[in-house]
Amino acid sequence: MRQTSSILSTWLIIILFFVLLFTLYNQQNKKYDDKGKDASIPTQLHPIVEEHKNKLVKEAENIGIELIITETIRSYDEQNALYEQGRTTEGNIVTHAQGGESYHNYGLAIDYALSDQDGNLIWDLNYDGNGNGDSDWFEVADIAKDLGFEWGGDWEKFQDYPHLQMTFGLSIRDLQNGLRPKTEQGVEEVDN
Ligand SMILES: [Zn+2]
Question: What InterPro entries would the database entry show (predicted)?
Fold first, then answer.
């Protein structure tokens, strides 16, 4: 009987040890912090998104595409005003997200457009300014995806062609609950 209980407690210690190890490992690899319900709302782009935005502009430039970033972080108020567009105010509906429901509100999304040589904005998906036979817009989307962005043009329900976001595995619900991506972490990039 005494032997059985000592074997049991040995096992218990071993199991507890692995649970502890697993917890520590998870803590280290967690890509987000839980800031709780009262978490502050970011006021600028997440540094990793900022860095990859700049890379995107540079890489597009390298293949003769001039890119304009038309939107970065958007406050809740700005988001709500945008939501009203096409509903209670003039214009077309451009978003289905209200304040707090867009990755823009957390500094995790950007929008882009193209520019011609005179600096005029171009929203034409077929525009081929660098003359290589491919749509500049889609070329930019491909570069962005290689950099780890999710592209709104790939969405099934509501295609948002100018939109790029990095979610870090967090849903809007997670962000509303105060989870925030860590400011330093490895973003998976596709090498090519
Ligand atoms: Zn957007």
Answer: DD-CPase-like (IPR052179), Peptidase_M15C (IPR039561), Zn_M74/Hedgehog-like (IPR009045)
Separation of alpha carbons 22 and 180, rounded Å: 22
CA of 113 to the centre of ligand 1 (A): 11
Distance from C-alpha of 30 to C-alpha of 35, rounded to nearest angstrom: 13
pLDDT digits (tens, 9 = 90+) for 132-182: 999 999 999 999 999 999 999 999 988 999 999 999 999 999 999 999 999
Cβ atoms of residues 56 and 140 within 8 Å: yes
CATH code of 47-181, in short, is 3.30.1380.10
Computed over its alpha carbons, how large is the radius of gyration of the chain? 23
Helix (H, G, I), strand (E, B) or coil at 159: coil
| Cα–Cα distance, 136 to 72 (Å, whole number) | 21
State in Å: Cα 25 to ligand 1 middle.
Answer: 34
Residue the block writes with tokens 């809740």 = 76
Give the C-alpha separation, 170 to 181, whole Å. Answer: 8
- Cα–ligand 1 centroid distance for 184 (angstroms): 23
